[in-house]
# Entry
Amino acid sequence: MRNIADIRFYPGRMLGLGNYRPGYQAILDFDYLSGKSEPSIAGIVTAAGRFQKYFWGTREVLIPCFTSIESAKTAVGDIEWMFNVNSGRRAAQSTRQFFQVFPDAAGGHIFAEDVPEKDALELYGTYQLSGKTIIGPAGVGLLVPGYLKLGVVGGVDYRQLEKNSLMTPGSVAVLSASGGMINEIITQVASAGHTISFALCFGGDRFPTTTPKDAFLAAEADDATTHIVYYGELGGQDEYELADLIKSGQMTKPVFAYIAGVIGENFDTPVQFGHAKALAGNKSETASAKRQALKDAGAAVALSMADFAASIASIPTKKTERKEPPVIQDRKTSLFSSTISRESDDGYEFVGSPLQQWAKEGDMAVQIGAALLGKRPQSQMIVDFIRTVFLLSVDHGPQVSGALNTIVTARAGKGLVDSLAAGLLTIGPRFGGAVSDAAGEWFTGVTEGKEPAEHVESYAKAKKYIGGIGHKKYRLGLPDPRTDLLAEFADKLPNHRYFDYAKAIEAITTAKKGNLILNVDGHIAALMLDILETEEHYDEAQLRDLISADFFNALFVIPRTVGFVAHYLDQKRLDEGLFRLPDDDVLLA
Amino acid sequence: MARVKLSEYAAKSLLVANYTGVGLRLDSLDKDTARLDDSRHYVVKVDQGIKKRGKQGLLRLDVPKADVPAACRQLAEKGFGRFVAEPMVAHEEAEEHYVSFERTRSGIAVSYSEKGGVNVEDNPGGIQVYSPDNAPLPKDFISHVVSVMDEQHLSFVEINPLLIRKDDCLLLDAAVLADSAGEYVANWNENDVVDPHVPSDSEAAIAELNQNSPAAFSFRVLNPDGALWLLLSGGGASITIADEAMNQGKANLIGNYGEYSGGPTTEESYLYTRNVLKQAFTSNASRKAIIIAGGVANFTDVKKTFKGVIQALQEVASDLRAQNIKVFVRRGGPNEAEGLALMKKFLEQNDLLGSVHGSDILLTDVVTEALEYVGA
# Structure
């Protein structure tokens, strides 16, 4: 297993696997109280949300969430540990996935009880024996005061951490089979005036991945550790290995031990106690026999908890300067979160820059790009593209549905906002709102490797329109002058697989019918996907998120808003009075 | 969360291809007997995970099909309800071998003794331990058992006697421990698990609670007339606290062992407590105490669990007073101060207070206080 000194030198960051709010919060509290500059949890793999809010001291921070370990890989950077809180059924599988994605990680902790013995042994063979450090299954993990809290060890209430000085590195190692008892003993050790070098709970399962022997050798190898306090239980043969370590001189540091479970010897048939291993199948597995073995080897073995506490108190206390942790008080959960907008010393900030800064820069396309992406655009290309799209999309005549509704509403005597809303509410799948649909088409086609012909055929069979294909007026031989301007962007891109796909679709559909051309929506969708991918370095998961958030329709909605306002003002200037359809324009069927 | 014993019928159904034994239950004897072959004679055995059945008279040999129900009823008089009938296999005692397979950290360990049968324990030196590769048994048989163990999450398989006739291995008697954590992928289920112990109502109710919760609950009556009734949290702390009564020479006063852990909800804590109290009331000890104790929890919320415990105590507060039962508490962990204050207030108001302590006293001191109260 990894050296404790190495962990102090580089604790590293961890990935949480599964949902466990109190456990994660306690790790952030430990980090904060230890004076770290950032949380050691880099991300959480869970289906629940994109971010989760946690307290960092008294203020809240967002920890990014991912639906799979793979999708976390690029976003979180270097990871040393996993804190795996998945159920026993999923623990082994998710652990293997973790090491596939993060082969250089140091290890992790599996929290679940009920991990099958066979799974635990396979993890032991595959990972522990090749140098990884997996603590568990079961138990509460590893704590290196001031550096790493990997698990619920030491408590989930920050007051427990403070009370037992768990942010201050010390000299007593606490090793335990039981999660509850490790915390009990930590409390005993702390109340006797000691500080802890590290606390490791290998768990009460029959085949813990990090064995008691591993834990002992880690304590021996750790220069900061001067004394070892050990809690074991009836069942299994581990204590004989520990006794051998002491007898053979591999362990030289004093060991204070308590082996629980003499009560088991009071019954005729073996009793199964709380932990899976806690059953004495034969005499050598009884608490008494194991106590004797450790005692014979030279460990100080307590016969009762009172004895144990007294022997812990007899360890000479070392003067350690206790870290005074920062105070945590008045925590209040926020009701909602925002990442793009905040008040700062310079007034209001919007996407990273004060508003006056935006004004000084003076380029609206950059600001709109930032507004849409939630961060400053990296490339000039996307800014130029947004500008072109906006300039082209501002209006397309008073006849189109949205403009018409704005005009009719304005002439009914309504004001700016009502008339604009009437126009905006017209935007949908048949008018202006097909950019997102088209983006979805091109994205699915490309990422799933669908043949364009097959794609078209599936729509033909379902008698559905393909988003981004077809125009009322323009056709082969009568091209839409706007699309030429957009298509020029493809020439500037090194790769444009989405645009190529869309054009391949167009080749098939126009062969069927001349007006089934790649329309403005289809162009915008394809080229925006290509620009995001090649110039802004979005991965497929991020693109998929943008599609499901209806991001692409914003490229129509924003400029067309200007157009609707223009039509409203135009109508006010003309002031033609209430509009009513002439009777002969209505078929009374 | 531990190794559990499977019935011999279930075990052999997993291990033996075309197994011809039949499992019989007392309440469906005629139906089960109908599955037997008219022309054969059977050995009928109690199938509840009990060892040395021959020596205890828990089997009947050479029973024709028609007499199987009667044989079962005879065995049922000793309190058993679950049996297995298998075709008789005539053999010499000299043919009987012993073999067991156990999952260990270094792989499956095969223990084999040329001389098997009922007296194998008289000759422990005869048992040699092998790896599956070098065990002196037919290779096909070894690899079959090992693969069934892996697929079915079996931890321990003991076959005694084992007959080897050419390449055929006959399993006359088999005892199997399965890994309960693997039940969800295996072909056996909780109905195949046997326990020689007949559970009390409270034990059964808590076992069911444990089945239906992500938290862990256990409860085992050790002495129905015990004076100390334990509501303990945590696998380790519960043993340590029970040990303390043993240390003080009073193990016989302990009514039960049990523990709840893994962050139970308020409702689950209530149900657990209610069943422990129910059992405590039936004890005939002259003076009784309830010990509610645990270590310093890492993540189990003291306030939340104590709310459930108090709710259950509240329901029977007058009965507790009538039997002069006092409650002794020691607990630490998240929301320790709030949980303990709640408990102390409740116990004082209801005249049930033995003592209430937090993590400032030793875990086991509360046992001493309770023992003093019950006059031991």
